[in-house]
Structure formats: structure tokens, C-alpha cells
Amino acid sequence: MPTSDYDPACLPDLLPLYYRRLFPFSQYYRWLSYGGVSKNYFQNREFSFTLKDDIYVRYQSFTTQNELEKEMQKMVPYKVDIGAVYSHRPSQHNAVKSGTFQALEKELVFDIDMTDYDDVRRCCSAADICSKCWTLMIIAIRILDRALREDFGFHHLLWVYSGRRGVHCWVCDDAARKLSVAARSAVAEYLSLVKGGEETLRKVVLSDPIHPFINHSLSVVERYFQQYAIVEQDILCSKESVDKVLSLPIPVKFHNSLCQFWYHIKKYWKYLSCSHNIKKGGQYFDKEIMLQYCYPRLDVNVSKGVNHLLKSPFSVHPKTGRISVPIDLKELNTFDPFEVPTISLICEELERPRADEAEEDDVKDKENEQEAGERRRIRDYKRTSLAKYVKVFDRFLEAMARSWKGEMLKKSGELETSFSVFLTFMSFTYT
């Protein structure tokens, strides 16, 4: 990943400026407090900070947005992780009675890492990515987003680029946050198709009839497979790579001919995949191959645990310097991880002079300190490449706010009904 504008050695100098003037604390607090519908929701949330020299500090918690801001500006974390909402303040977990400190709620989360595709991508390996293999992330988002919305009925999904080689999904619906470990495991297993370690050749096994969810997933994979796998990844470019495909369960009558004419296999792929959906013993070999090469590979342990930590949106990746930013699904096909700004870039953009800066400073001086600080931060990030990603986050929060308002109205209605019943009862009592 080209990061020529970023020098990790400069991170200690850049982070204080980032947390002081650019980090979107207002939106961040608004997200994690969920409209204040549940009491102490933000206060009982765990934050984890990774400091310089890999010093790891867990069970951080904060009462207000201002308290969170001050602590992050003081500690200057290299990485921020978000954990569960607990029964007690995480910062006081050592003071509560043993066994009573429990993780109660957390967003349903998914972590998709490009390294898990190393056995099927030829362009890169390990932490490296390129525009060719990034298609795998696009496929993963399209498949999982549809399933979570249509199959499970969730609405508030925040997709976030990790800052280096993968994506995260935060399912923020009230129902999702309250899911038990067993329910989270069931969702994760439902969405998992690629199974088995390095020794397992056949990682996708389809049965007859194919489940509707898998058919939906196949419709996504098929849109990208020819260009991604056959052309860009060129998985059939040599006898070695063809042998890898042939090691999968292909019917013998095709296996023999492909071994003999492996150098013509590109011409045959379309024929093979359309040959009456070749099926033998319940096996759809062409579909299994496509899914094995392109289907999302989930770290199910991240999704199953309520108390599992996940990297926070707008955290900085220390090695690439890139900000972990929300992804606009309306522009998913054109999202380019290499265009995501680095902390170096946005700090440089921030320092560029503006003609109207002096006038705005005069306005700022007339406001109280907290309002001035918030006004300046909004003004500051809008001057940088971070602005469009904060705007995506704002739209996500606006959609959630509408559901919070509905929940508050519902609770208000229930309270009003209860009070009316009480008044009716009292009127009969004293009549």
C-alpha cells in the first residue's frame, strides 16, 4: 500500500493535533450514547487504548463527551478499540463484587481481513492489498449487507474501512446490540460458507437444493467473478494455478480434459459454468469454486463474543497512517482504500491558511470556551479530506436518530398511559 506521504516516526507529533482539532468527538459521542434512550449507556461502555510502545490500557470509561476528549488528548492513543456496555463502569471493574461485572450489550460486529484470502489471491499476500484484490471486500460488503438487512431485518449498518487491509461492520440496531452469545453465534454461522484450514482443499460444500441465501450470494459473486478471478487475478494463467483449481471436486469427465488443455481453460470456463449447472451427487462444482474464491471470509470469533473489542472508527492505523473511515455504500464500487487520507495529509491540509480565518477567530472569541472549541473542530475537519467521510457518518447518525426519536416517543406514550391509569385509579379511590 503506497503511503509515501506518511512517516510512522511522525505519528507522536501528529496525533495530538488530530485529537485536538480533527477527531469528530461530537458525532462519536452521539453514536455511542444512542440518543440517551438507555441510562448510563455511554458511561458503562469500555474503551481500550493502545499507547506508544504497544502499551495496552483496557477498561477505560467516561461519563461525558468532554471527559472522553480530555483523556484521549492527554493519553494520545495510537489505536482506539471499542468494547461492550457493562453492568458497571468499566473503570471501576476492580471495585465491584466478583462475578457481578458482566458484559450486557454490544453492537453485532463483523471483521473481514484480506489475509484470510491468501490461499485464493495471486496479486498480494499478508498485509498487502491492491486494487485487484480489493474487489473481494466489495463482494463481501454487498453479500453481507443484503443478508443482514433482508434476512435478519437490521437497518443501521455502519461499514468501516480498517485503515489497512480489511473492513468492519457495526450492526447498531437495538435488537442487534441485545443479542446473546448464542444468537450472535447463530448469525455468524448462518453467514459462514468457507470453512476449513489450510489442509482443507474443498472449503465450500453445497447441498441440493441450494439455500436461497446462497443463491443471493452467488448472484453477487457471478457479477464480479469473470473480471476479478479470470481476468485480474488470472487464476488460470499457468499449469500450477490450474492444478490448484483442479484440486477441487470437479467431475472426472471435465477434469481429464482440463488437465490436457489447461492453457485453453479461460475459453472453457463460461462453458463449464453454464453446462446445465452440472450436478453430480448433489455437488455444484462451478458454484463451489466461485464461492471458494470470492465468498466473504469471516472471523466468527469477533462476531460471537459480546465482550470482544474492535477497532474504533476514526482511529488511525499506525503503520499506514490512514484513518479508519466509514464507507458510503452508494459509492462502494468506486471506494478506493488508497484515496483514504492519512493523518499526515489532513494535518497538512489543516495548516494551509484560509482568507476568512481571522474573521472566524473574532467570532470564536465571543463564544464560551466549549462552544468555541466545538465550532473550531467542525470548521477544521471540513477543511480537510476527512470531511466527506464525516459526512457519511453524519447521514448514518441521522437515520439512527429517527429511530431513537421513535423509541423515545414510544416510551413517552407508555409513561403517559401509565399516568392516566394511575389518575383514573386515584379518582375512583377518593370519590
Automatic annotation (TrEMBL):
<keyword id="KW-0240">DNA-directed RNA polymerase</keyword>
<feature type="compositionally biased region" description="Basic and acidic residues">
    <location>
        <begin position="363"/>
        <end position="375"/>
    </location>
</feature>
<keyword id="KW-0862">Zinc</keyword>
<comment type="similarity">
    <text>Belongs to the eukaryotic-type primase small subunit family.</text>
</comment>
<dbReference type="InterPro" id="IPR002755">
    <property type="entry name" value="DNA_primase_S"/>
</dbReference>
<dbReference type="GO" id="GO:0005658">
    <property type="term" value="C:alpha DNA polymerase:primase complex"/>
</dbReference>
<keyword id="KW-0235">DNA replication</keyword>
<dbReference type="GO" id="GO:0006269">
    <property type="term" value="P:DNA replication, synthesis of primer"/>
</dbReference>
<keyword id="KW-0548">Nucleotidyltransferase</keyword>
<protein>
    <recommendedName>
        <fullName>DNA primase</fullName>
        <ecNumber>2.7.7.-</ecNumber>
    </recommendedName>
</protein>
<dbReference type="GO" id="GO:0003899">
    <property type="term" value="F:DNA-directed RNA polymerase activity"/>
</dbReference>
<feature type="region of interest" description="Disordered">
    <location>
        <begin position="354"/>
        <end position="375"/>
    </location>
</feature>
<keyword id="KW-0639">Primosome</keyword>
<keyword id="KW-0808">Transferase</keyword>
<dbReference type="GO" id="GO:0006270">
    <property type="term" value="P:DNA replication initiation"/>
</dbReference>
<keyword id="KW-0479">Metal-binding</keyword>
<keyword id="KW-0804">Transcription</keyword>
<dbReference type="InterPro" id="IPR014052">
    <property type="entry name" value="DNA_primase_ssu_euk/arc"/>
</dbReference>
<dbReference type="GO" id="GO:0046872">
    <property type="term" value="F:metal ion binding"/>
</dbReference>
<dbReference type="Pfam" id="PF01896">
    <property type="entry name" value="DNA_primase_S"/>
</dbReference>
